[in-house]
Amino acid sequence: MPTSTKPASLGQLKTEGIDVWAWCEDCSHHAVLPIRSLVERLGESFQVPRIKSVILCSQCGSRNVDAFPRWRSLGVVARHQV
Known about the structure:
By secondary structure, the protein is an alpha+beta fold. The chain is built from 2 helices and 3 strands. It is globular and about 40 Å long.
């Protein structure tokens, strides 16, 4: 039987110090949304996937915006030499 995983909340991201990345599907504008500002505006229990229902693109005004956690980079994971 599959297990269900609840989407991350803004409070969880705040605890980890992870901001949210937003990407407009219409004009490709993208921006990092500071987690503290989102928590102040939407509350700690607000789930990350729901962010796209309350924001719009600051470039073109579209509501077709995707939002997801801005996970930390793993850095260089392979070294390539020519």
